[in-house]
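Hello Y.,

Per our agreement to keep a running log of every chain we model this quarter, I'm adding this entry. I've kept the format consistent with earlier entries: sequence first, then predicted structure.
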Amino acid sequence: MLRSALLATLFAALSPFALADVEFVTPAAGGTLAAGAVSITWKDSGTAPALSLLAGWSIQLMVGGNTDATSVAITSFAGNMVAGNSYTATIPAAASGPATNGYYLKMTSAATSGGQVINFSKRFSISGMTGVVPAAAVAGIAASAGSLDGPPTINSVSNNAGGNAGNGAAAGGDEYAIPYGQQTGATKYAPMQPIPPTKITKKNFTPLNPTSAVVIARTNLPPAQGVVTTLTQSQTFSVVSVENTAAPVAGPTGDMAKFLNRWKD
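Predicted structure for the entry above:
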C-alpha cells in the first residue's frame, strides 16, 4: 500500500502585510516515494492570509536542477483549494529514471486578488522509475548533489503584496496586453472577457483572433508541459440599479374588472 506522498500546495494572497505560505508535510527532505499512486498532502504555514483566499493550484513533479534550464517537468496535476489539503496523484514509472534526491515538487497557486505564488518542496527520490532521466536534467541533478533544497519561492501576487520584490513581476499589468499565442512561460494571461451588448448590431461574423493550425491527436499524448496556469484579467464592468419612481397604472374598470374578479374566488 503506497502511502508516501508528493506534496504541495500553497498560499499566496493579498494581505497588506504578509503572504500565506504552504508547508509541505510529505515527502520529507531526502525521503523516497514509490512510483504509482501517491497521496499529496499539505498544511497552511500559519502565515496570513488563509488558504481560503487562494484559488486553483497546479503541481508539477520536477526532476533536475533548481533552474528552468536544468529541470524538466515529467508530470502535472491540478485542483482547487476548496477540495481540501490533499490530492491523490499518479507518478508514471516510465516518465523518468532513478535519480537520488533528483526530484522535487513545484506548486503554482493563483491568488483570488490576482497573480500567483510558486512554492517548491525539498528534494526526494522515487523508487521504481523504469525510464531515463531527461538529458536536460542530468547536469542539474549533479550540480544539486549534497543539497536537499529546491528552488526559492517566486512571488508574483498582484501589487507584490507582502514584499519579496524582485522575485517576479506583479500580474495584472502589461501581461494581459500581450497576445496569448506570443506569451511564454508556465503562466499565461488572458484579457478581460468582453461584456455582451444590449443590442445585436453586427450583420457579419468576424473572428477576434486569427485561426491557428490544429493537428488532431490519433494516439495518447504525453503529459502536458509548458503552460501550467492561465490567469484571466479581472472584470471591471459593474451594474447600478435605481428605483422606478413612476406611478403604478390604475387597475381595469367596468367589464374587465368584473371578469378579473371572477378569478379571485
